[in-house]
Amino acid sequence: MKRTIIASLFLMIACKEEKKEMKTTDEPKPIKEKVVLNYESNESEEARAWLKKSIVDYFKADIGSEEKNRQKITTKDYFDYKTDATNVEMDVDGSLTEKEFQNKWKSKFDTNKAGIGVGFLISAQDWNTIEVESCELKSSSKDEYIFHVVLKDDGFKAKYPSVIKVVKENGSFLIADVLQDEPK
After folding, report:
1. Which of 41, 81, 55 has its CA nearest to residue 174?
2. Alpha-carbon distances of 108 from 20, 77, 78, 102, 138, rounded to whole Å
3. Is the dihedral of CA 106, 175, 47, 160 positive or negative?
4. Which residues fall within 8 angstroms of residue 130, CB to CB, at 6 or more apart?
5. Which of the chain's ends, N or C, has fewer CB atoms near its CB within 10 Å?
């Protein structure tokens, strides 16, 4: 009888130790998830820093190279789209009517927020010094980041809110869309 009780105790102790071993093997999984989250937050922070620097550099550059500089920081589709939006109803080669513009781009972009007839990122033709007042991440997915951005020009006492989509293509960040609101 004593041997049966002793054997039962050994079995119970052995089962408890086995459960402890199983728990320790489950712990590394959350650590891997944390690494992924840190990588994603680092990537979005890199995109944010790139966007802020690119905007400031764009407005500091020589106005004569504006189109070339815009091509460097935007996707080809967005560059073509914004060029069309800027030239709607203008007397230049290749300009579109507003209806033609809507029909051409409505499947790829929100044409109601294109900034038709106005410049890239701001609606003003002239500016003193454009600064990024705020640049907050709204959402992100694989290689795509959406930022709520407010640009300001203290010289003209103007603020330019927009939503900017940044994508990562071939290891580089590019602006893929800008939803421009009316300036405040």
Report:
1. 55
2. 55, 9, 9, 10, 20
3. negative
4. 55, 56, 59, 121, 122, 151, 152, 153
5. N
Measured between alpha carbons, how far is 99 from 84 in angstroms, rounded to an integer? 12
At residue 87, φ and ψ (nearest 5 deg) are: -95, 5
Structure tokens at 20: 């402890």
pLDDT in single tens digits along all 184 residues of the chain = 655 565 555 555 655 544 444 444 444 444 333 333 444 568 999 999 999 999 999 999 987 888 899 999 999 999 999 999 989 988 777 789 999 999 999 999 999 999 888 889 998 888 889 999 999 999 999 899 999 999 999 989 999 999 999 999 999 999 999 998 655 5
Residue type, 86: T
- Closest to 156 measured CA to CA, from 176, 137, 128, 182: 128
